[in-house]
Design goal:
Blueprint (H helix, E strand, L loop, with lengths): L29 H11 L4 H9 L15 H11 L3 H5 L4 H7 L18 E2 L2 E2 L7 H6 L16 E2 L4 E2 L44 H15 L5 H20 L4 H8 L23 H15 L3 H10 L4 H4 L8 H7 L25 H19 L1
Antiparallel strand pairs: 1-2, 3-4
Helix pairs in contact: 8-10, 11-13
Length: about 375
């Protein structure tokens, strides 16, 4: 920590220099590098963090999003890696470039999946591709597996996982130990994460579009802000479509042969923040959003008109409308905003929720109970 003169007391934390250096793998996350380095230097993740940062509880925070100034300088001293190189193992430099709003360390970031914590226990998980872990000479965690708009592997064209397929425990990198020290195994049950025999396949073009967005972000491409602004707008439209009484989403999905899973209740789409949605829910929304995004302006306008999409459903007053979609909205039907007086029948108890929605909420509650009990 910093002393009275503002100098960092590196030696007070324990280890000063790692005897065995480690190098980052392509698109590797900071937590992945840190844990691999720990095992390479014969120390487990929890004591490793204490040796670098002392009493600062690194694993309570989402260090893959960003590291504060002093902790990242301490880590630089231990690893011998420049601070700037370590920063680019975190998401902040890239997410800041594509975000339309200023990033707040205490709030969710729209383009990064949330890792809800209760002390050092996470209630959600890092995504992963079993096939990638199987093929890795050294299994490691990728940066794209934390991006909320990515739900598929572009190399293997399969939907990612966010739970151990054997015990359904979240992937907690800091809970690995000498007994289970490789990312191709579950830190909870020890079974292999790369033995899934029948991964869920996805449409190739969806995986390609998701990877294209990752490339735009990683290369700081000039067109990234427009690309992500359009995707965010379409996600908002798709979410409203699912909850609308017009059943617009079902109609649009049928047009692309992307019918929503019948067992899924759709109510959480409208009430849960996008990065907090389950992997499956985000995948459903993104499939339709990317199909719409791939259409030309003329084709998208025709599609929306043919399915009876109104201007008020397509365009939100509370959200910035990209130029391309603002032009499209001018061609859509506008509804009469005048409302009839409420009748006395409106003041009634709402009907019971469908069984699938009740079961869905129970599943979420059970996952949180299991996570807190670990």
């Amino acid at each position: 920590m910093a002393d009275s003169k503002g100098q960092l007391g590196y030696t007070s934390s324990g280890i000063t220099k790692w005897p065995n250096p480690v190098h980052a793998l392509p698109d590797e996350l900071l937590s992945s590098l840190l844990i691999r380095a720990g095992f390479q230097n014969h120390i487990e993740p929890m004591p490793l963090a204490a040796s670098i940062w002392g009493k600062w509880r690194a694993w309570v925070f989402d260090i893959d999003r960003a590291l504060p100034k002093v902790p990242i300088q301490q880590l630089s001293y231990s690893t011998g890696m420049p601070v700037q190189q370590l920063k680019h193992l975190t998401l902040k430099p890239y997410i800041r470039y594509i975000s339309s709003v200023k990033l707040n360390a205490k709030q969710r970031w729209f383009w990064v999946t949330s890792l809800a914590h209760r002390n050092a226990v996470r209630r959600s998980s890092i995504m992963f591709c079993p096939q990638c872990l199987l093929e890795d000479a050294i299994p490691y965690l990728r940066m794209q597996w934390r991006c909320s708009w990515i739900t598929t592997c572009h190399e293997h064209h399969c939907v990612l996982l966010d739970r151990c397929p054997h015990c359904e425990y979240p992937i907690h990198p800091h809970r690995y130990s000498f007994n289970i020290s490789s990312f191709n195994r579950c830190a909870s049950c020890g079974d292999r994460l790369d033995e899934l025999k029948a991964p869920t396949k996805t449409h190739t073009e969806i995986a390609q579009q998701q990877q294209h967005g990752f490339h735009l972000m990683r290369t700081f491409d000039d067109s990234a802000d427009t690309w992500f602004a359009e995707l965010k707008f379409l996600l908002g439209f798709v979410r409203k479509s699912y909850s609308s009484q017009l059943k617009c989403a079902q109609s649009l999905c049928n047009a692309f042969e992307l019918a929503p899973r019948p067992q899924q209740g759709l109510s959480p789409f409208g009430s849960v923040n996008f990065p907090d949605l389950t992997l499956n829910d985000r995948h459903i929304l993104l499939e339709l959003a990317f199909r719409l995004k791939a259409l030309s302006t003329t084709d998208l306008t025709s599609l929306l008109l043919s399915h009876g999409v109104t201007c008020s459903l397509f365009k939100s007053d509370s959200q910035h409308t990209p130029e391309r979609f603002d032009a499209i909205s001018q061609h859509l039907k506008r509804m009469d905003r005048s409302r009839k007086a409420r009748s006395t029948t409106d003041a009634q108890w709402p009907p019971p929720k469908p069984d699938d929605q009740v079961q869905r909420k129970l599943d979420v509650l059970h996952r949180e109970i299991r996570a807190r009990g670990r």
